[in-house]
Automatic annotation (TrEMBL):
<dbReference type="GO" id="GO:0035251">
    <property type="term" value="F:UDP-glucosyltransferase activity"/>
</dbReference>
<dbReference type="InterPro" id="IPR035595">
    <property type="entry name" value="UDP_glycos_trans_CS"/>
</dbReference>
<dbReference type="InterPro" id="IPR002213">
    <property type="entry name" value="UDP_glucos_trans"/>
</dbReference>
<keyword id="KW-0808">Transferase</keyword>
<comment type="similarity">
    <text>Belongs to the UDP-glycosyltransferase family.</text>
</comment>
<dbReference type="Pfam" id="PF00201">
    <property type="entry name" value="UDPGT"/>
</dbReference>
<dbReference type="InterPro" id="IPR050481">
    <property type="entry name" value="UDP-glycosyltransf_plant"/>
</dbReference>
<keyword id="KW-0328">Glycosyltransferase</keyword>
<protein>
    <recommendedName>
        <fullName>Glycosyltransferase</fullName>
        <ecNumber>2.4.1.-</ecNumber>
    </recommendedName>
</protein>
């Protein structure tokens, strides 16, 4: 790893969601590896919203302990004496109220920040960047398809002013640039009611995204070629300039690399004893949990399928709208059908609360993944070559389900995800489909290619050179798919001529010279220079 330069600092600003924090930490590690300093500026929740942020605050502490090379700066908590009763609006309000503290932090740095990279929920932090004179970029931690749809929503709502809300349209298909038709009911709950304040806030946020200098997305181009192309072509934001788009993924946790057998989770030792591609893995992310009735239906479906399984079970939330609250250890004997654990002991393993998902997905015994379709989980499965059984729960996961199944051809749907329960019959049917049928074999072939392309994207991202100027001069810098190269090199205050040599897939810069500094990010179709303050 290159020694970080304290005079060249990139500040990352994340919201307090585990699915957002983890990819932000992975981006920080990548930036550190290219010789820049990096600080993750984390909001401190107001005292009045402590319940909402409880699990996320502990996640920040765990991530900081696990990644000592990454610097975390905790911004002071803002005053928020009367929080909105809606938990989602609490989060947005808290992030907005944190903007002055973020601006003050940026101004307090010994040398000006090279760039501020924002989570998409932190849109109001554009104001902090402007007040501190720091160029701002967005890092979207979910998929390009989501971003294409979201950026089009301000135009869609303006063009359909007075029209029906998505919540009243059932499964009517929505047609947005760069993505397959989306059933209206699969849009995130935050935009279902166009008369609601939550929806108005999200539309305001999406309308501001094009103000940034660029958008980094945790994806790789092969996986989402159509959505990436639509974003680059500007068709998602009609009538406005779209900032450059940079697929920089798949940025995922590498997983545990401990050599000692004792350091491995017990479920990995269990997997070691199973045949190749024979185990169905069920896990619903860091926050996902289902009802007690659903746990019993799932158990019956797994038992009926006859297939091996590894299942992560959490206690059902007392209030489904408060899935983010910490929960107690589940009582498996009370939650699962009587005798289930004994009857399936020879072919199944149930673990509580947590399993090392990356290692499980990469294990040779894992043959399918029942997932809530959180984007980190989708990327981890695609990178491991594991077909998905899509069971979305909340946030943008229903959208991700559409793209995984209809666009990426990487999974099947657990029907009933939008009803009270997914039946045992459906669980058994879809497990058998993926594990036994010709359709399942085609999925495995598709995912094997997805795994190969993910490895290529990572290899391109890790390709480095100590002398970018000479590479530019010799046209030797390849524009490989979904690569990310962060470089520090002298630059004039304005790059006067940068051209893409399309026939040679290389870059040339006819005005290279001397004073300040820039960050150089290469991706499939773009090159980005981020001017830094002197």
């Amino acid at each position: 790893m290159a020694e970080p330069n304290p005079n060249l600092t990139v500040v990352l600003h994340a919201c307090l969601g585990v699915g957002h924090l983890i990819p932000m930490v992975e981006l920080a590690k990548l930036i550190l590896g290219r010789g820049l300093s990096v600080i993750i500026a984390v909001p401190t929740p107001p005292a009045s919203t402590a319940d909402f942020f409880a699990s996320s605050a502990s996640a920040v502490a765990a991530l900081a302990a696990a990644n000592p090379e990454v610097s975390f700066h905790h911004l002071p908590a803002p005053d928020y004496p009367v929080p909105d009763p809606d938990p989602f609006l609490q989060m947005l309000d808290a992030l907005r109220l944190t903007v002055p503290a973020l601006a003050a932090f940026l101004r307090s740095l010994p040398s000006s920040a090279a760039a501020l990279v924002l989570d998409l929920f932190c849109v109001d932090a554009l104001d902090a960047a402007e007040s501190a004179g720091v160029p701002a970029y967005f890092y979207y931690t979910s998929c390009a398809g989501d971003l294409a749809a979201f950026l089009h929503l301000p135009h869609y709502f303006a063009a359909t002013d007075g029209g029906a809300s998505f919540k009243d349209m059932g499964k009517a298909p929505l047609r947005f640039p760069g993505v397959p038709p989306i059933p209206a009911s699969d849009m995130p709950h935050t935009v279902l009611d166009r008369e609601d304040r939550t929806c108005a806030e999200r539309i305001r946020h999406y309308a501001r995204v094009p103000e940034a200098r660029g958008m980094l997305i945790n994806t790789y181009e092969w996986l989402e070629a159509r959505a990436v192309r639509a974003l680059r072509d500007g068709v998602c934001v009609p009538g406005r300039a779209t900032p450059p788009v940079y697929p920089i993924g798949p940025l995922i946790v590498k997983g545990q690399e401990a050599a000692e057998k004792e350091a491995r989770h017990a479920c990995l030792a269990w997997l070691d004893a199973q045949p190749a591609r024979s185990v169905v893995f069920l896990c619903f992310g860091s926050l996902g949990a289902v009802s007690a009735a659903q746990l019993k239906e799932t158990a019956r479906g797994l038992e009926g399928s006859g297939h091996r399984f590894l299942w992560v079970v959490r206690s059902p939330p007392e209030d489904p709208s408060k899935f983010f609250l910490a929960r107690s250890e589940p009582d498996l004997d009370a939650l699962l059908p009587e005798g289930f654990l004994d009857r399936t002991r020879d072919r199944g393993m149930v673990v509580t609360m947590w399993a090392p998902q990356v290692e499980v997905l990469r294990h040779a015994a894992t043959g399918a993944f029942v997932t809530h379709c959180g984007w980190n989980s989708v990327l981890e499965a695609a990178s491991a070559g594991v077909p998905m059984l899509c069971w979305p729960l909340y946030a943008e996961q229903r959208l991700n389900k559409v793209f995984v199944v209809d666009e990426m051809k990487a999974g099947v749907v657990m029907e009933g995800y939008d009803e009270e329960v997914v039946t045992a019959e459906e669980v058994e049917k879809k497990v058998r489909l993926v594990m036994e049928s010709e359709e399942g074999e085609k999925l495995r072939e598709r995912l094997a290619l997805a795994k190969e392309k993910a490895a290529e994207a990572l290899a391109d991202a890790n390709a480095t050179s100590e002398d970018p100027p000479s590479l530019l001069a010799s046209n030797a810098l390849s524009l490989a798919t979904a690569s990310l190269c962060l470089r520090i090199f002298p630059s004039s205050e304005s790059i006067t001529s940068l051209t893409l040599a399309s026939t040679s897939s290389a870059l040339t810069n006819s005005s290279y010279p001397s004073k300040s500094t820039a960050i150089f990010i290469s991706s499939t179709m773009n090159t980005l220079f981020i001017p830094c303050s002197a």
